[in-house]
């Protein structure tokens, strides 16, 4: 089990133990704060940790297997925080490359649809970036490839805007499609005010992007502290609100007259559409 998976499970439990010796530990906020750094520099990692980031995504840049030593140095600065690697480019990735990252202490890979399929063969956990307006079939297809979590990127025309009802509907549907952890990528510091709404939708947390953080340690610290403060205020996770009868029922499909089919065949409703 990766560090990221353990982090998600702990946030879902609110820090409460389980099993015969279960006991309540310090309350754990229900939203996870991930900092996606624009460069894999130790001073940026240190600033993110001091500001309260729960996990980090490092920038691969032009990394090759030979750069695993440099990645390891940065991961060591992060201590026990989960560290992912945002894979750049579309060049074929050999299994040795993924193994080198794992040996360097990388916990998971942040992948885009254009990345090489060879990355699916490694043992590192995979977090897929998806568009907020993607089709439900795309999400389920990625889930079938073994993705362990998803980061939803906001549409370009919504990147600088507050959360709308249409945004909320999309995120709620995405959290229900696979049961995998879903994080929302944010490129706007103003979204701090919408964290409570995101928590109600069932997302696991937010990934603050490189464009928002910048490359100055003081700026990284300031942005993340604003998110951390609000997440702490919200406290432990609460179950997402559901309405009675919200689940989609199975609907029997009756053969039309004259078709020769005298028996009813169970049918499943079509995929729900995303709101426009």
Structure write-up:
The protein has 276 residues and is of the alpha/beta class. 33% of the residues lie in helices and 16% in strands. It has a single domain (3-234), classed as TIM Barrel, CATH 3.20.20.70. The protein has 9 helices and 10 strands. The strands form 2 sheets. Strands 1-2-3-4-5-6-7-8 form an 8-stranded parallel beta barrel, surrounded by 6 helices. The protein has a two-stranded antiparallel ribbon with strand order 9-10. Strand 2, helix 3 and strand 3 (83-86) form a beta-alpha-beta unit. The chain is globular.
Quaternary state reads single chain
Order of strands across the widest beta sheet? Answer: 1-2-3-4-5-6-7-8
Counted by DSSP, the helix tally is 9
Question: Gyration radius, to the nearest Å?
Answer: 21 Å
CATH topology-level name: TIM Barrel
Low-confidence stretches: 17-24, 62-66, 247-256, 261-269
Total E-strand runs: 10
- Share in β-strands: 15-25%
CATH 2nd-level architecture: Alpha-Beta Barrel
